[in-house]
Structure formats: C-alpha cells, structure tokens
Amino acid sequence: MWPEILRESLRDARRGWLWWAIGLLLYVLLILAFYPSIKSDPSVNEIMHKLPASLRVLFGEDLTTPAGYVGGRLFSLMPILLSVFAGLTGAALIAGEEARGHLEFPLAQPVSRRALLVGRTLTLLLLLLGLGLVLFLGTWAPGQVFQAPLPAARVLETAALHTLGAWVFGALALAVGAATGRAGVAAAVGAGLGTLLVVLHTLSGQVAALRDLAWLNPWKEALGGSPLLHPVSVTPLLVCLLVGAAFALIAAPFFQNRDVGR
Prior knowledge:
- With 262 residues, the chain is mostly helical.
- The chain has 13 helices and no strands.
C-alpha cells in the first residue's frame, strides 16, 4: 500500500514544493548574476582575508574563481535553506497532518501504520531529491552563461551532499513527529539542529574540541571538503542516506503503538 500513499503524498505536497523550487532557482540565479561584476576585482579577496577565521571557514577566501564564488556565496548557505525545508516538510508529513485532523482518514483504511510511515518517508526523500535536482541544474547550466562554468560532475556531487545532508534532518523531524505527534517540536528539532550544526562547523576552525568531533557533522563534507574542486567519495552520501532511514526505523514502533489524534 505504500506506493499509493507515496503518490497521494507527492500530489498533496507538489504545490508547496513548487514554490520552494521557484524560490531556490531565483536565489541561485541572483547569486550567479553578480559573479561577472566581481571576478576580476582583487579587492574582494582582500576583504575576505580580513574576515574572522570562522567566517572564512564558511565563505572561503577566494571569490574570484567560479568554484570559490559558487561555494562561498551559494552553497555555503544552502544547508540552512535545505534544513528549513526538510525540517518543516518532515514535521508536516505525519505530525502536521495529525494536528490538522487529516491522519485519521488514511489510518481508517486498510493501511498499516508501517506502510504509512514508509510512504511519507519516501515522499520526503523524493521532494528533497527534486530540490537537489533544481539546485544542480540551476547552478550548472546558468553558470555557463554567467561566466562561472563548473564541471557538471562537481556541481552534481556538491548538490547531492547538500541534499542528503538535509535529508538527515528532515528524516529526524519526520521521526520525531511520528513518535510524538507534535509538529512544532519536530520542525524545531529538524530545522534547528541542521542550522546549529552549520554554526558549529564555522566554529570548528577555532575550537579544537569541535574540530575533533567534526566527523559527526553531516555538513562536514558539504562545507569543508571542497566538493566543487575534488571528486566526492560515495561514503558520506551513503552514510547520510542510511542515517535518515535509521531515524524512520527507530520511530516506527513509537508510531505503531501511540494513540493518533489524542
């Protein structure tokens, strides 16, 4: 039954997803449109070198090259945007539906709660992958026009790291919502933790304890591994995918046994 739940959930979410995709594409185009005006200006890098070390970790030090500019101005803030989308969407798919009284009807059908959880989890993953595709195409293709050409493979891998990084926090929000039925708490946990770990990544350049624990941060490879310059191992992608799936598995028994709608 979960394929039917997946189709219905995607149909219900398509309008909200479309607005996010349009907003994301416009944001990408706006950032890229400024590149031709600064790519030959060495004073930009002089300004970057004067920034605190924590900000240089996030935004980089060279905004005159396509990889430095796209990585520092565009992808550096993408984890926050994608975490917010993932957290809100993950919380809405079960806990949000329950708060609006829309979950009783599907559960009244011959559908197991496990199938419902699988369908909603896959919905979240596909919505995020769709945004990742928009991010890839919106960065790579217009980059050729705005004098910021980058190899398609590097942009695709970078977009995948960001997308699956956000998947971790979206799946966490969905799991918390399924286990507790509290949409606000679920959204705050998912989006809040995703954003907090971006901040901790920026501080890891100055705080040794955070640097030692950086391997636990899903954003480590996306923000600190220069994926626009170097090939990405499949390992961090698989780890993020599996961690998100594990959150859904952990939430399954809680969702199975609690009273929905009370």
